[in-house]
Design brief:
Layout: E1 22-30, E2 35-37, H1 38-44, H2 50-57, E3 63-65, H3 82-107, E4 115-122, H4 131-139, E5 146-151, H5 157-171, E6 176-183, H6 195-201, E7 207-215, E8 222-232, E9 240-245, E10 250-255, H7 259-275, E11 285-290, H8 295-304, H9 313-322, H10 329-340, E12 348-355, E13 359-368
Parallel strand pairs: 4-5, 4-6, 11-12
Antiparallel strand pairs: 1-7, 2-3, 6-7, 8-13, 9-10, 12-13
Length: 380
């Protein structure tokens, strides 16, 4: 494939060249210590309803990392109160977040004291102060570190946060900005035997991911964040939502069965908006990193964008091995792409996330040459 203008400047949201270029210079991920197959989860919770079992076993998910409720003497699991779920969100969130942030900084060859901006993203609980303050205290980041908490936006929010981090990095050349996605999805589970909650319980896993971004003179290996584009579908605002369940006394997440079709129907439009003004066509994109939202969602995106299973191999592999990790899923896929060692300088990539709103977020990236082999990049 011939690369058009292999190293253009970054673009603003309006398609105009940006004054500074923000690059991804490191990524890190973390999951809980314990993972479970879908069959193991069905057995642990004694689920015999054939409809529910079918949802679990036909999800294209093999294993998920979860912090399950405590076991009772008879081997069953005690259902947690909303207060216990919030404590799980806080405790396990801080622990996972700290590990993924440290891993990210190691890859970026940076120290805790280098972080000038921290954006924490989460949708699986509510905390005040938020994760940004708690992680700063836990890891000893500098007190003057600027921070932002993005709460409750859902699975799309990783790219909302990355857009904010990229903007801060461009405004502060040479300073390190970090986005940290913390999703203890098992802190948002309700077990009431209904199909509504079973769909959610069959899908989500716990995990955290972090990405380091820097702009300016630091010519490190890694992709430039060229442009972001967003699309919200207001008429589908209730398709994905977090409700309060009076009967259970807990928050409960709802997914409409039409979500895959809503996402798929708007995928081509948002990619058109993302590439507008860049001189690029869809065929110029070498790497697709799409949120692991679920089998039907991934299939719908693939069909509507005329992508291949190879194009979405990292998305489907993350879904298979981890489930839907909410806001941080796309960084698990991005990390897998980097580890694969197939990226060439000049390659373009698209990041895509989907979530409540209903919303699709996208980013256009391009791998730039740098001074050192920070990532396993294949020479062009």
């Amino acid at each position: 494939m011939t690369q058009p203008n292999p190293l253009p400047p970054a673009f603003s949201s309006a398609g105009e060249p940006a004054t500074e270029e923000a690059r991804i210079i490191g990524v890190g991920t973390a999951v809980p210590a314990f993972s479970y197959s879908q069959r193991e989860l069905l057995d642990i919770f004694g689920i015999t309803d054939p409809r529910v079992r079918s949802v679990f076993l036909n999800s294209a998910i093999e294993r998920r990392f979860l912090n399950l409720p405590p076991a009772l003497p008879d081997g069953t699991r005690r259902m947690e109160t909303q207060g216990e779920l919030l404590q799980k969100h806080r405790t396990h969130g801080i622990e996972m977040g700290a590990r993924s942030l440290q891993s990210c900084l190691k890859q970026a060859e940076a120290d805790i004291d280098d972080v000038g901006y921290l954006c924490c993203v989460s949708s699986t609980g509510f905390l005040t102060p938020g994760f940004s303050a708690l992680v700063i205290r836990e890891l000893g980041l500098r007190p003057e570190c600027a921070r932002l908490d993005v709460v409750g936006m859902g699975c799309n929010a990783g790219l909302n946060g990355l857009s904010a981090v990229s903007g801060w990095a461009r405004a502060h050349p040479g300073k390190l900005a970090v986005m940290l996605c913390i999703e203890a999805c098992s802190a948002a589970y309700v077990f009431d035997g209904t199909m509504r909650t079973s769909v959610v319980n069959s899908l989500f896993g716990d995990g955290s991911s972090a990405v380091a971004v820097m702009a300016g003179e630091d010519e490190r290996e890694g992709p430039a964040l060229l442009k972001f584009a967003s699309c919200i579908v207001p008429e589908a605002i209730d398709a994905m939502r977090y409700d309060w369940d009076d009967h259970e006394g807990k928050f409960s997440f709802y997914l409409d069965q039409d979500v895959p079709y809503v996402v798929g129907a708007h995928a081509e439009t948002i990619i058109g908006d993302l590439l507008a003004g860049t001189g690029l066509r869809r065929d110029d994109i070498s790497h697709w990193i799409v949120h692991s939202g679920g089998k039907k969602v991934v299939d719908s995106v693939m069909v509507n964008l005329n992508l291949t299973r190879r194009d979405l191999r990292h998305t489907t592999n993350v879904l298979r091995d981890y489930g839907n990790l909410s806001s941080g899923s796309f960084l698990f896929s991005y990390s897998a792409l980097v580890d694969e060692g197939t990226v060439r300088p000049g390659d373009y990539g698209v990041l895509m996330t989907m979530g409540p709103g209903s919303t699709i977020e996208t980013a256009l990236i391009q791998w730039r040459p740098g001074d050192g082999p920070r990532f396993p990049v294949v020479p062009g």
